[in-house]
Specification:
Length: 144
Amino acid sequence: MSIQVKVIDHVLRPVEKVFNSIVDPTQITKYFVSDANDKLVEGNKVSWEFKDYNVKLNVEVLKVIENEQIIFDWEASGNKARVSMSFSSEEENKTKLVITEDFFETNEEGIAKALQQTQGWTDFICSLKAYLYTGINLRNGKMN
């Protein structure tokens, strides 16, 4: 048995703007990572750096459907996990964003990692919204 992390929220911006703020390395570094060496494009292996945690993560981009879906593998929790981001336009300026990360074991360590990733993806969405709504980078106080 395993646990899936799932975070759902709405961003009051057009789906194209939300999608591009995630795939574009010049934008994602304004609210989520300290450095990104490439765009999230299907087949790319991207390096994301989190200076505040002194961590570099490799992101293997498996699938990208423009303005609809991003799927990648990474090891943010210490084990290989698959992340899926789904985008849907509910109204002209309202995007539904669903982020899932699979799978975590149902033991004490797995549950702790699932909770940590849930917190991380919630922080991601809050930071994304702050960036898109105001241009503020909520991670500024965390970075070196």
